[in-house]
Amino acid sequence: MTILSNLKPLIQQAHKTKLGRKAKPQPIFVSKKTEVEYYKALLSISHLCQKGVKDDIEPMLAFNMGDSIEIHIGDGIFSSVKNALGNLKQKISNSIDLIASQLATQIVLKQKKASDKQIVEMLQKSTGLDFTGLMRDEDLQDAVDSAIAANVSLIQSIPKQYLDKVEAAVLDGIQTGKRSDEIKKSILEIGHSTDSRAKLIAVDQLGKINGRLAQIRQQKLGITHYTWSTSHDERVRHSHRLRDGLIFAWNDPPSDGHPGIPIRCRCVPIPYTAHLFDKDAKTPEQAMAAQKGIKTLIEQQNDDLLGWLNKNQISKIANSLMSDKNIQVLAEEYNLTLPEQVALRHYTGNGYGNLNSMLNGLINEGDPLYFELVAASKVLSSALDRLPNHIGVVVRRTRLPTELLAKHEIGDTVEYNAFTSATYGDGDVFDFYPHRLVIHSKTAKNVNFISEYKDEEYEVIFNRPKKFRVLDRTLIDDVIHIELEEL
Q1: What are the strands, taking DSSP E only, across 163-240?
Q2: A single Pfam family, by name (predicted)?
């Protein structure tokens, strides 16, 4: 039995007899004061690193290189700069190691205090009872220790990542004969990105700390469910906007975690306590059953992917995508749901075959896969609609069927019913194919960030169906070159 379960009759009586307005449960927010404090501390570490490079490294570059591009490795600057960077790394690392544990502990405990205070106030406003004495520190000790350890590691990573990138930029600049002002510009850009990373760590970690501590505290009290609440602004990712107002169980998290756990998530859990305060209110199980009839977009999209993929494949791809922070930052920016991310990744791997065969009429309604592939194509199409347009020239090497090739005469308009891939890279991909399509794109979508072959194929995908006008057609060295304009 939990604390609130044992006290349920007393709580319901207190709630019933409490004078004045009955307060509704409120979300447990991140302490903005603590978040700002953490950001400033991390920013000062970033600036300490940048000052060290400015004081110790940049003068060496100016003295030895100036604006000359005739510098040689044999001049000794390479080893001198490498040694100086090594000394700077050690000096800054030693100083940060001394404060990392203290800073992480301070931030985690401040958020714990703020979270506990909000829970106590919420319960007191609803019942008139003070639960402060029931908030045992030992209930949260493991989570607190884990959060401190994670943040110590992140704090220490700021100087390490910054100085490693500076070292790579400086040594590469020396080896390739860049001028000192060019190298300094690269160093400045690295500093800006490190400042941005400090902000990301502060926001992301406070959300994670708050979410995890709120979960454990509520579960220990006997609050088993919560209502998902977004920050209700334009920055909320699409998948989380769809969860707003829905009830979730603490012991059954969504695919990407509870509120605050996904990277840069600012959503919060509102404790579901109606049944604890009012014996006539729905239990959380009854409330969830009532919302079960409404299938969320994500649930529907997961169902739509089945057939094109099996459950194990979906889970494996989803886990891989969720572990890639760079992908998740862009997925949030584009409001991509997790099933849509899975569709993009699978299509750019080996999933294009069956899907385009169906769209081109090679798999018909009599095939058991047909309707499953139709559903999956809608998920992929939805994903592409969310991505920004790639405007410019892209190239597709392919082998067009004879009947379709005959329609590619100058002035003709052709329609592709399937999804169409191309590359925006410098070289042709699959250059062994006999037909080279040069396409003036207006709405192709750059999927390189999530592609199975990231930075190899530089893939863009045209959503379907798509019409093109044939501008030119020539035969060069046994390759038919066709120039297309997207309509």
Answers
A1: 225-229
A2: Phage_Mu_F
157-171 average pLDDT score: 94
Sheet holding 268-271, edge to edge: 247-249, 225-229, 268-271
Tell me how far apart the alpha carbons of residues 233 and 98 are, in angstroms, rounded to a whole number.
39
Q: Is the dihedral of CA 199, 205, 208, 209 positive or negative?
A: negative
SS3 399: coil
- In angstroms, the CA 342 to CA 314 distance is 7
Interatomic CA distance for residues 60 and 171, integer angstroms: 13
- Report residue 266's pLDDT band, with 50, 70 and 90 as the boundaries: confident
Strands 479-486 and 435-446: parallel
User: Helix or strand or coil: residue 282?
Assistant: coil
Query: Taking Cα atoms as reference points, which of 270, 313, 466, 476 lies closest to residue 385?
Result: 466
Averaged pLDDT for residues 369-382: 93
Pairing of strands 225-229, 247-249: antiparallel
Inter-residue contact 380 to 344 (CB < 8 Å):
yes
8 Å CB contact between 332 and 237: yes
The neighbouring-strand residues paired with 438 are 395, 483
What whole-number distance in Å separates Cα of residue 133 and Cα of residue 136? Answer: 7
Tokens standing for residue 87: 């000394």
Range ranked top by mean pLDDT from 14-18, 71-75, 124-128, 262-266: 262-266
Distance CA 202, CA 206 (A): 6
Q: Give the angle subtended at the CA of 352 by the CAs of 350 and 358, to the nearest 5°.
A: 135
Higher pLDDT, 309 or 9: 309
Long-range CB contacts (< 8 A, 24+ apart) of 399-402? 399/433, 399/434, 399/435, 400/435
What is the rounded distance in angstroms from the CA atom of residue 478 to the CA atom of residue 363? 32
Strand partners, 270: 227
Of 199-203, 307-311, 425-429, minimum mean pLDDT range = 425-429
pLDDT in tens, 170-213: 988 888 888 888 889 999 999 999 999 999 999 999 999 998 99
Q: Give the residue among 107, 117, 87, 196 at the shortest CA–CA distance from 151.
A: 107
Q: Which domains does the chain have, with CATH numbers?
A: 3-11+28-223 (no CATH), 301-384 (no CATH), 388-486 (3.90.176.10)
- Note the pLDDT of residue 11: 54
Report the residue count for the chain.
487
